[in-house]
Amino acid sequence: MFQxxxxxxxxxxxxxxxxxxxxxxxxxxADAYDGLSKPKMIAWIHTHPNGRPMPSPTDREDATMYQRxxxxxxxxxxxxxxxxxxxxxxxxxxxxxxxxYYVPQEKPIGASWTxxxxxxxLAMWDPEFKTPYNVxxxxx
Length: 140
Hints:
Layout (H helix, E strand, L loop, with lengths): L9 E4 L4 E3 L1 H11 L8 E8 L8 H18 L5 E9 L16 E2 L4 E4 L4 E7 L15
Parallel strand pairs: 3-4
Antiparallel strand pairs: 1-2, 4-7, 5-6, 6-7
Helix pairs in contact: 1-2
């Protein structure tokens, strides 16, 4: 996993939107694999702070651009690619107890868990943001 909450990866960031620099992200990932086997799976996951893990019109317009950025930076398109949305609702506080935190549950789209402040949902999508994938929660 690569942590992307670094200002060098953003062109513009406001409370309502974020414009990322996917070419920079993809190049940094490629550089991290220099001299190593290329990754066989890449997922571009971003956050929707509105509580819905559904792609926006902009998400759908930009969907395949991210995959192309990684293919260009890595010099190959020989990898599985997924889009993902991490959603949480800032208007609703969590009422969960400590014992209930971070216990994931499968949902019709994605999987959800409760944190100390909010309920989070992660949904994974195909490269075009057309079809959601089933997210399975596996307990030990």
